[in-house]
Design goal:
This protein has 194 residues and is mainly α. It contains 8 helices and 5 strands, in the order ααβββαββααααα.
């Protein structure tokens, strides 16, 4: 149950697809790369049948904290060997024949998200999906100042036009941009008029 709640949190923070989250291994977390660490997405979606497309996703937007908490406080409840090659980042409650945890499946993550939405977000139970979390992530990153090319890289899109369809701006964004622009213009003019 904790896996099916933690994976969607990570998905909403860095825009992972549900299939990408399920295929992550513990070894795919690269704490020593970049300022925040990175997640090696080895099984990203390719374009038009090109096969898997790898990418390195920075652990921004609180994703580093989510992963540290999950690994330090939760992961050991499923498996006890952090060093096992191929140890899944998000283990299932089901065990393999050797006693190690299996990898959580797409259906478990989808149903866990649905159950959590029904319990905590009445009215969203049927509409909150892993794909909606990708849109949420893109919109949140954009609202926090990330440019479109950076968001494209995080989400693993081949085309910027695809990324643009993922971003939904708040209705006040145009007004907020106008106010900020006029304030910048007024400050520039202050130095000219004395």
């Amino acid at each position: 149950m904790l896996t099916s709640h933690s994976a969607p949190k990570l998905m909403s923070q860095v825009g992972l697809r549900v299939s990408e989250a399920c295929k992550l291994d513990l070894a795919d977390i690269k704490w020593d790369l970049g300022r925040f660490g990175k997640l090696h997405v080895r099984h990203g979606k390719g374009t038009r049948g090109s096969g898997p497309r790898e990418r390195m996703v920075p652990l921004i937007n609180g994703a580093d904290r989510t992963l540290r908490w999950f690994i330090e406080d939760v992961w050991g409840q499923f498996d006890d060997d952090h060093t096992r090659p191929g140890a899944p980042l998000f283990p299932s409650e089901r065990k393999s024949t050797d006693g190690s945890s299996r990898r959580v499946g797409d259906d478990a993550l989808r149903s866990g998200l649905k159950d959590a939405a029904k319990a905590h977000l009445p009215g969203w139970g049927e509409t909150l999906t892993p794909h909606v979390l990708r849109h949420f992530c893109a919109s949140q990153l954009y609202g926090n100042g990330l440019d479109l090319l950076a968001i494209q890289e995080v989400l693993g899109h081949s085309w910027i036009a695809t990324t643009m369809r993922y971003i939904h701006v708040q209705q006040t964004r145009v007004e907020d941009a106008w106010v900020a622009g006029t304030e910048r213009a007024a400050k520039r003019l202050e130095g000219l008029v004395r």
